[in-house]
Amino acid sequence: MFEGLLIGLQTVFSIKMLVVVIGGCLIGTFIGMLPGLGPMSIIAIMIPVAISMGDPAAALILLAGVYYGAIFGGSTSSILLNAPGVAGTVATSFDGYPMTKQGKAGKALTIAAIASFCGGTVGAILLMLFAPMLSSVALLFHSAEYFALMVVGLSAIAAFAGKGQVAKALLMTTVGLIMATVGEGALFNMPRFTMGVMDLQSGFGFITLAMAMFALPEVLFLVLNPKPIAGSGMAQIKDLRITRSEARSIAPVIARQSIQGFFIGVLPGAGATIASFLGYAVERNIAPKKEQELFGKGSIKGLAAPEAANNAACTGSFVPLLTLGIPGSGTTAILLGALIALNVSPGPRLMLDEPQIFWSVIISMYIGNLILLILNLPLIPYIAKVLSVPRNFLIPFIMFFTLMGAYIGQNNATELLLLVGFGVFATALKFADYPLAPLLIGFILGGMLEDNFSRSMQLYDGIAFIWERPMTLGLLVIALILIILPSWREHKSKKKNENEPT
Amino acid sequence: MALDRWIALIFLTICLAYGYTAWFTMDEGLPPIMQRNPIWPSTFPKLLSVVGLVTSLLILLGHEKKDQETGEIDYRHLQDYNVSQAVGLLFLMVLYAVSLKPIGFLLSTSLFLTIGAYILGERKWVLMIVISMLTALSVWYLVSEILGIYMRPMPNASLLEGF
Fold first, then answer.
1. Same domain, yes or no, for B88 and B47?
2. Residues of B (58-87) whose Cβ lies below 8 Å from A
């Protein structure tokens, strides 16, 4: 491990990489602060830049930096404006915004930054410990287990989608998988489902789809339903200090939530949003009675808990990506897509074959967190000025960068028309409450899923691999339970409700 | 019928067409040597079409009852939102896509940013045009000079000859 750490340090401590980390964090904070634009759209917009850098380590470091920055920026707008830029920071606004109203905006920002820093750093340490262990287990996996594992991941994403959403998430995943089969696959030398259209020979473009699924609907929502961007809380950011007793009271909260958040982040489908809400709820429940009443009215514990948890979860979500090559969230799915575009296939062999990528990402996490704490925090009053850029200018610019991303990726104007078409459809899906991330995850995993399925079929001359390999069978049973469980529980609670009145 | 079920209906039709291709027409051109293979190009799509059909039917038949809360935007009251601006911007994006090659990157980008701000209600013409042109120039410089991706900066004379 120390050998790996040294490789990572060597890669990251060059002027270029440091600039990349700092730049990524700053850009992420900048855009993440804008209400309505989440980390997924920011990363989608940044992908063409990352890919054209050509160096997979630099690309991943840039995108990871953007990711932390976006989460950090999202908490800033949650605290200052009560307008979370990112779903993962909604819980931050519960106690952060009341603090701003009490004139303690500076203190709230400091607590958020420290909690984020600790969450991210603890997450990075845990990642460093667990990823090598997990990937040495994963090396024992065969294609049959990989297939089953991906099925488990995809079903978990559907199962965690929320009440009344399981079938929708499942359908979106399937649509993503179906879209992945369009075009000429690596396995069979024949085009499939192209309907004779030349442009579909190479399949749908991943960047186009990512932009259309995340960036465009979010911008359209901003146009349709203007949110207040400029706020009144901005002028009073002063006094960033916290007292010693405050630090002492939030320290255990941060420690607990960093660890809990990390493990929630590792689970596929869970991620920063669930981690932050759960962290908030847990801390409220275990707090002493007197402090419990403060929650929601500007409690520093209530602010520190979701901030530590969501940053730790962001780091945790890198574990399945780096060790298994299976993304558990929309954001890591986009990162996976970017890596594949750079000819890197993440998975258990990544750590052996390209240790510099693996370790430099981990080192960059420490640096990224440090930069967010020491560079971004003092700059926040200035960065917050982005919130006063008129939306009339901002929105065309975001649209332009969305278009540019798709154009640079494919160098093809038809791709732009596809982008607009898919974007409109994705907006309709968003109206109807269909989750969009499963579609993209399905699309990105589709090729690998079919590859592993086909390889197992060939090895066992049929579907015998399902029952001849106990681990595969076990994983597939877990997947089935994950899908059936939510509707079974709903069914049971419905029955209970019917019985109660009689 | 609610929008989510209409969309499920669209997906159902897509899955039916997809499934029909996978189950019935796709294997016709398969060379005999590949037919001995346990896995055909159509095997995985066949599975997917079944899963897709089942899930879209589940939504269409309203198996899962949703909580009665609307999302960020209630599409039933779409007229209350800035629909005309959104449609205008989408139309502008299409125009941009079509015009990018013939009139060149610099002109089309400046126009896109200026008209985009105009659609959103901005009327400070000088500021709009200056910012748009500066952005177009700097992005073009970044993409084509630093990243090395060629984009035609100026109008394409041969394409405009016909006009």
1. no
2. 58-59, 63-67, 71-73, 75, 81-83, 85-86
Residue B9 belongs to a domain: yes
Which residues between 452 and 471 in chain A have a beta carbon less than 8 angstroms from any beta carbon of chain B?
Answer: 453-454, 457-458, 460-462
Percent of chain B whose pLDDT exceeds 90? 33
Output the six-digit token pair for B131: 């910012």
ipTM of the complex: 0.86
Sole residue written with tokens 């203007």: A226
**C-beta atoms of B66 and A164 within 8 A:** yes
* Cβ-Cβ contacts under 8 Å, A224 against chain B: 73, 81-83, 85-86
Interface test with A, best of B5, B20, B39 (most A CBs within 10 A): B39
Pair B103, B150 in one domain: yes
**pLDDT over 60 (residue A233):** no
What's the one-letter identity of residue B103?
A: I
At A372, give phi and psi (nearest 5°). Answer: -60, -35
Mapped onto helix, strand or coil, the DSSP state of residue A183 is strand
Q: By C-alpha distance, which of B86, B63, B106 is closest to A430?
A: B86
Domain count, chain B: 2
Nearest C-alpha neighbor of A416 from the set B142, B151, B115 = B151
Domain limits for position B90: 81-157
User: Quick check: is B14 in a domain?
Assistant: yes
Model pLDDT, residue B48? 93
pLDDT digits (tens, 9 = 90+) for A115-163: 989 998 999 999 888 888 888 888 888 888 888 988 988 888 887 776 6
Question: Does residue B72 sit within a domain?
Answer: no
Are residues B85 and B61 both part of a single domain?
Answer: no
- Same domain? For B59 and B120 the reply is no
| Tens of pLDDT, residues B90-147 | 999 999 988 888 888 899 999 999 999 999 888 888 988 999 999 899 888 877 776 6
User: How many residue pairs from chains A and B have C-beta atoms closer than 8 A?
Assistant: 179
CB spacing of A395 vs B45 below 8 angstroms: no
Residue B60 domain flag? yes
